[in-house]
Amino acid sequence: MGMIEESTLYERVDGDPFFVALVERFYEGVATDPVLRPLYPDDLAPGKAHLAGFLSQYWGGPPQYSMERGHPQLRRRHAPFAIGQVERDAWMHHMTDAVAASGCSPQDAVLLLAYFDGTATFLMNRD
Fold first, then answer.
1. What is the largest CA-CA distance in the chain?
2. Confidence tier at 3 by pLDDT (50, 70, 90)
3. Contact assessment for residue 124 and residue 83, using Cβ atoms and an 8 Å cutoff
4. SS3 labels along 2-21
């Protein structure tokens, strides 16, 4: 009786290109969002690279993000930005659209959205 190997989400979506495309779609929404755009720097490229790298690693890819940036420290990295319910919901709106357009399986979409929903709520720092 052999062991059944569980695949990671990273493997199921074919790795880095999936996360790069997901983040690109997400940032298309952020770029024109009147609530979120002011929270981001003028140059969105570094943030895109950081988010794609973090997500790739988080979902089972190589530890490139941690090698380059250290521990994710999500709360500390987001502390300078006022994130209340409105900002959280706007962020989730764009990420939900990006996941829906990603072509991943319905099961993986559920996993991604559950993670994003919990994390977006966790990062709220304003009433």
1. 57
2. low
3. yes
4. CCCCCCCHHHHCCCHHHHHH
Cα(17)–Cα(5) distance, integer angstroms: 23
Read off the DSSP letter of residue 63.
Answer: T
Instruction: Provide the residue range defining the domain that includes 83.
Output: 11-122
- Please give the Cα distance from 39 to 120 (Å, whole number): 15
Q: What would the mean pLDDT of 93-103 be, rounded to a whole number?
A: 98
CATH of the domain at 109: 1.10.490.10
CA angle 69, 15, 20 (to 5 degrees): 65
Residue 1 inside a domain? The answer is: no
Q: Does residue 69 fall inside a structural domain?
A: yes
Could you tell me if 52 and 20 are in contact, meaning their C-beta atoms sit under 8 angstroms apart? yes
Q: Total domain count for the chain?
A: 1
